[in-house]
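Deliverable D2.4 — example input (structure tokens):
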């Protein structure tokens, strides 16, 4: 296709700055239509972002003849349904992460992509950010020697909404999100490790609820091994003391250690026989734009995006290997 003409379904907060503007700022890419069940909000978003049309019915968007690609930005509960319906309507699909509620749903989406011939992309946009490309370049330059292991730590205190029983975000409602903050945030971590170190082949671990603030898991541990033989360990906690706040990944090799964050974009630090070096990168205004550029390029036949359905499903598989402790 010469021009990618987008329709957005679920034009909520993530679309305001992170992703939405990229669809009309990239060359050969246009935002044609948006859909939300709340007609007033759909109309408001369309007016502010220059979309030509808005809908409050998904079928109307799927069958808009001018739209040739759909961005599914709803909560995970409807990712599989909307992605499959869009592909069956002849539209390429770019779906938010986590890809779906379950790994089985992911596989259904992949099957629909193969059956319809419609491309399926998953929004693991960190793969295209300068920060993680820099991390990968350091690994590819053999700055650590043989990579031995990886350690992941993400701890944070409860959010104010977590403390209000009547004001919980949908992100901690398993019936809507698939799980809790693990499902919302850990896919970014799992995917970036896949990007940096290759596919994870085996996972064992546990999820539990220690804070009692909501029904979803809030504390998680995992041990995993990559196809390459590298081993890893991860701890996530979303109810820990603020004194324990941490967002840190350490990749350890025979000749050094490389540390960075997944969400905070703190300086990348390399420690090896040459001493200690620190690296910073500038993040784009619209954080998904570099990745969306790769999607547009692939749809136009001039490039390739780094995350399709089969890769995007791997975090769902990872999370389903974790046993629930009650």
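Example output (designed residues):
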């Amino acid at each position: 296709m010469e021009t990618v003409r987008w329709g957005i379904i679920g034009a909520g907060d993530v679309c305001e700055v992170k992703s939405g503007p990229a669809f009309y700022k990239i060359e050969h890419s246009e935002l044609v239509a948006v859909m939300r069940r709340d007609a007033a909000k759909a109309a408001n978003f369309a007016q502010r972002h220059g979309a030509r049309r808005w809908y409050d019915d998904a079928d109307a968007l799927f069958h808009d003849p001018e739209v040739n690609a759909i961005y599914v930005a709803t909560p995970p509960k409807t990712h599989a349904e909307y992605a499959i319906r869009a592909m069956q309507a002849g539209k390429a699909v770019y779906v938010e992460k986590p890809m779906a509620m379950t790994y089985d749903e992911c596989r259904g989406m992949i099957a629909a992509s193969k059956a319809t011939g419609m491309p399926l992309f998953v929004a693991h946009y960190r793969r295209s950010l300068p920060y993680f490309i820099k991390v990968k370049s350091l690994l590819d330059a053999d700055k650590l020697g043989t990579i031995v292991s990886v350690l992941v730590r993400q701890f944070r205190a409860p959010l104010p909404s977590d403390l209000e029983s009547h004001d919980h975000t949908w992100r901690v409602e398993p019936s809507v999100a698939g799980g809790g903050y693990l499902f919302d945030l850990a896919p970014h971590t799992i995917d970036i490790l896949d990007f940096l170190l290759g596919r994870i082949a085996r996972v064992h671990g546990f999820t539990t609820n220690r804070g009692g603030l909501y029904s979803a898991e809030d504390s998680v541990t995992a041990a995993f091994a990559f196809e390459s033989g590298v081993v890893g360990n991860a701890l996530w906690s979303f109810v820990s003391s603020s004194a324990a706040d941490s967002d840190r990944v350490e990749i350890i090799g025979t000749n050094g250690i490389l540390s960075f964050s997944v969400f905070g974009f703190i300086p990348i630090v390399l420690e090896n026989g040459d001493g200690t070096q620190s690296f910073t990168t500038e993040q784009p205004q619209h954080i998904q734009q570099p990745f969306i550029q790769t999607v547009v390029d692939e749809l136009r036949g001039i490039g390739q995006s780094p995350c399709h359905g089969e890769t995007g499903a791997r975090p769902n598989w990872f999370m389903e290997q974790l046993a629930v402790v009650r």
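The chain is about 30% helix and 25% strand.
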